[in-house]
Design a protein that fits this description.
Length: about 90
């Protein structure tokens, strides 16, 4: 088995240092990845479900709003005309 030249050893040590730096950088990213996974796998699906529930209530909200508009525009003025002095100024 041949011994490596001093230049080859120096190159290998330099490359080893670079890989150790890369390993350290990637290890520092692990908590960030865990947070991302938490958001992606748990929080986003829960929020999407809440959005679906809220969107499901839109027809009810729209129907109720139309009822209120109808009451304010049609029924309320009619009921006020049944009482003397209540419908004046409209």
């Amino acid at each position: 088995m041949k011994k490596a030249s001093p230049a080859a050893i120096a190159d290998n040590k330099k490359e080893m240092g670079e890989w150790e730096g890369e390993l350290e950088r990637l290890q520092k990213l692990m908590p960030i990845q865990a947070s991302r996974d938490q958001v992606k796998l748990k929080e986003l699906p829960a929020l999407e479900e809440q959005i679906k529930e809220q969107e499901g209530s839109y027809p009810d909200i729209s129907r109720r709003a139309e009822e209120v508009i109808y009451l304010n525009d049609v029924i309320l003025p009619l009921s006020l005309t049944n009482y003397p002095g209540c419908g004046e100024g409209r």
